[in-house]
Amino acid sequence: MKAIKVIALFLTIVGAINWGLISIFDFNLVEYIFNNMDKTYIKVTYTVIGISGLISLKLLPKVIKK
After folding, report:
1. Are 3 and 55 in contact (CB under 8 A)?
2. pTM value?
3. How far apart are CA 36 and CA 38, in angstroms?
4. CB 15 within 8 A of CB 49
């Protein structure tokens, strides 16, 4: 279970960095990586990052407690 939490946290960070890149430079890293592939890969990536955000949200009370 610890590995899933670490992966979720990592993907949440990647998602946050991607949003920062979109905001500052108008550059979407996910679309850049999957440029020549089917749009399904982009949707799956965003879905996995979104689920990772929800898992990371569950970790928040533990971080606040410390």
Report:
1. no
2. 0.82
3. 7
4. yes
Q: Are 56 and 9 spatial neighbours (Cβ–Cβ below 8 Å)?
A: yes
Please check whether residue 30 is in contact with residue 44, taking contact to mean a CB–CB distance below 8 angstroms: no
Q: How many CA atoms lie within 13 A of 39 on its CB side?
A: 0
Rounded to whole angstroms, the Cα distance separating 16 from 27 reads 13
Torsion of CA 14, 20, 22, 25, to 10 degrees: -120
pLDDT per position as a tens digit, 6-64 = 899 999 999 999 999 999 999 999 999 999 898 999 999 999 999 999 999 988 888 78
CA–CA separation, 4 vs 7, rounded Å? 5
Overall domain count for the chain: 1
Range of the domain at 47: 2-65
